[in-house]
Amino acid sequence: MGLAIPTLAQPAPLPTPDRSGDYRRTDHQLWIVTDPDPNGLNCRWSRAMPSNWADPSVRFPRRNIRDWSIVRRFIQNTVLVANTDPAGFVTFTDEDDKPWLKVRIGAENQICLVRANQDFIRPIR
Predict the structure, then answer these.
(1) Domain-wise residue ranges, the chain
(2) What pLDDT was estimated at residue 42?
(3) Cα distance from N-terminal residue to C-terminal residue, the chain
(4) Can you tell me the distance from the alpha carbon of 31 to that of 63, in angstroms, rounded to the nearest whole number?
(5) pLDDT given at position 12
(6) Which residues are 114's β-sheet partners?
(7) What's the pLDDT at 50?
(8) Distance between CA atoms of 43 and 23, rounded to whole angstroms?
(9) What is d(CA 46, CA 53) in angstroms, rounded to the nearest whole number?
(10) How many H-runs (helices) and E-runs (strands) does the chain carry?
(11) CA-closest candidate to residue 63, choices 37, 44, 41
(12) CB 31 within 8 A of CB 123
């Protein structure tokens, strides 16, 4: 009787952008900043967002994220870790149907949002 050789699972394929360069509904957690802007990639958050934003019953403020305050900036090649709360997906859609990546910036579900577009970020392993 021979030894069984375990097979290694193939890693899941990296998310691919749509025709507009947007990364839509995904659960991928590791991303790298590709935005060459020397001022960095803006990460936004609204003071009107409830602290329990991950609660499915919470009411969100107006989702005009492009107008929300800049709370962080990430320089090119910064590795970002996405937040998967509450349903396992790492993107949040604004009122123009543009996806934004939920980036972890602290403990207890502290996040900010960067545009989930290939001009600014890309997934990594």
Answers:
(1) 30-123
(2) 98
(3) 38
(4) 23
(5) 84
(6) 101
(7) 87
(8) 16
(9) 11
(10) 0, 8
(11) 44
(12) yes
**Are the C-beta atoms of 30 and 125 separated by less than 8 Å?**
yes
Q: What is the pTM of this model?
A: 0.88
Contact 91, 65 (CB under 8 A): no
CA distance 97 to 13: 24
The predicted structure's pLDDT at residue 43: 98
Contact 108, 114 (CB under 8 A): no
The parts of the chain modelled with pLDDT lower than 70 are 1-4, 6-7
Other Cβ atoms less than 10 A from the Cβ of 94: the count is 18
Residue pair 88/25 in contact (Cβ under 8 Å)? The answer is no
Closest CA to 54 of 30, 97, 90: 90
Structure confidence at residue 53 (pLDDT): 86
